[in-house]
Amino acid sequence: MCRLVALDAQLEDFARFHMDGHWDADGTQMAATVAGVAGAASGRTVSVQPFAWWLMTLLAPFVTTLGEMREMRYLWQKPLRLDNQRLRQVLGSEPHTPLADAVHVTLAGIGCLG
């Protein structure tokens, strides 16, 4: 983002860029990485369990957020990948943080480690 902001004067208003990020077609790589980082920080084995979508269906009439989450379920059922070609054209490459590093910093930042 900082590299794009530095180019602000050269970009059109409302310029749109997509990042390729970390491709994880079925979500297992992200779940395994979170479990690995949390497990390493706590010294315990962290298990990964399927998400209880059925529970969201039952509770959605009473909790608006859960109904909204159900509407986004398709994002977990069908792979969706953004094209970063324009970002690469403008910047030359897409900056990329290793997934485990990004997860560790994120979990530490929200107080989940330690």
Radius of gyration, taken over Cα atoms and rounded to an integer in Å:
18 Å
Structural class call reads mainly alpha
Low-confidence stretches: none
Distance between termini?
Answer: 29 Å
Strand percent estimate: under 5%
The tally of beta strands, per DSSP, is 0
Helix content: 40-55%
Main sheet attributes: strand count, strand direction, barrel closure = none
- For the residues shown, what is the average pLDDT? 93
Q: What is the H-and-E element order? A: HHHHHHH
* Count of structural domains: 1
Q: What is the tally of helical segments?
A: 7
Structural shape: extended
Please give a quick description of this structure:
This protein is mostly helical. The protein contains 7 helices and no strands.
Describe the structure.
By secondary structure, this protein is mainly alpha-helical. The chain has one domain. Helix content is 50%, strand content 0%. The chain is built from 7 helices and no strands.
Please describe the structure with a list of short key phrases separated by commas or semicolons:
single chain, 114 residues, mainly alpha, 7 helices, 50% helix
